[in-house]
Amino acid sequence: MNARPKKSFGQHFLHDRRYIDRIVAAMAPRPGDFVVEIGPGEGALTLPLLAAAGSLTAIELDTDLIPGLQARAAGVGELHIIHADVLKVDLGALAHSHGVPRLRLAGNLPYYISSPILFHCVEHAAAIQDMHFMLQKEVVERMAAAPGSKVYGRLSVMLQLACRVEPLFDVPPEAFRPPPKVDSAVVRLVPLPAHELHDAPPEQVHAVVKAAFGQRRKTLANALRQVLDADAIRRADVDPKARAETLAPADFVRLAKACRNLPP
């Protein structure tokens, strides 16, 4: 029996087998992989991932969906369900508690909280091998946007400083029940190796990126006035008259380091 989607959870259940198969093929799970699915819903993606990997951990907030998931998974593989809000799950501790170096994440993320979930995953990127997520197409475009794009912004910079972002394919509304009012897309995120990560204080990077894009129509000299003066921006080899959307992610790292060097 199909579950009734709940608006409060932003539920749109994927049901089109063609797109389910494409997601599984893109992820290519193997026995022994520690696969974690965020928001399994009715299990459309859960079961083929479970069959391929042999075991799977699902994080599900909706209590009503859990019995159905357990029943459908019987005989397919070893399914572990964590009843929790994913934003409150320590992904690093989850990997450590199971004695695995890194997790493989998948999920059709609730669109209304997709950005917080992405930032939460990035915070635990050291414990993650890769991520394959279904998101609103517009969000995926923002994630992968290059400097100068109209949709390039805070999400683009913060994700690209931590991961390689690879849009894979689009998914139409009719692939879901009920159909959302927007197109969707699947994206692959691969955390950068340690030697490619920046060495600026994370809190400074967050502060600079947030301030810069918080007033994106202003020049950096004006937008960053509370954290950097024009001379410090120049010392970071950035034009104080430039605007945030023209800067590459690496430019924000240099600005963050300049911010750290300012006197209190």
Automatic annotation (TrEMBL):
- Please give the chief subcellular localization of this protein: cytoplasm
Catalytic reaction(s) noted? adenosine(1518)/adenosine(1519) in 16S rRNA + 4 S-adenosyl-L-methionine = N(6)-dimethyladenosine(1518)/N(6)-dimethyladenosine(1519) in 16S rRNA + 4 S-adenosyl-L-homocysteine + 4 H(+)
Which SUPFAM superfamilies does this one have?
S-adenosyl-L-methionine-dependent methyltransferases
Give the EC number(s) listed in the UniProt record.
2.1.1.182
Q: Which HAMAP family match?
A: 16SrRNA_methyltr_A
Keyword DNA repair among record annotations: no
Q: Where is the Ribosomal RNA adenine methylase transferase N-terminal domain positioned along the sequence?
A: 19-193
The name this protein carries in UniProt is Ribosomal RNA small subunit methyltransferase A
Family assignment?
Belongs to the class I-like SAM-binding methyltransferase superfamily. rRNA adenine N(6)-methyltransferase family. RsmA subfamily.
Give the GO molecular function terms: 16S rRNA (adenine(1518)-N(6)/adenine(1519)-N(6))-dimethyltransferase activity; RNA binding
Single GO cellular component term:
cytosol
The alphabetical list of record keywords is: Cytoplasm, Methyltransferase, RNA-binding, rRNA processing, S-adenosyl-L-methionine, Transferase
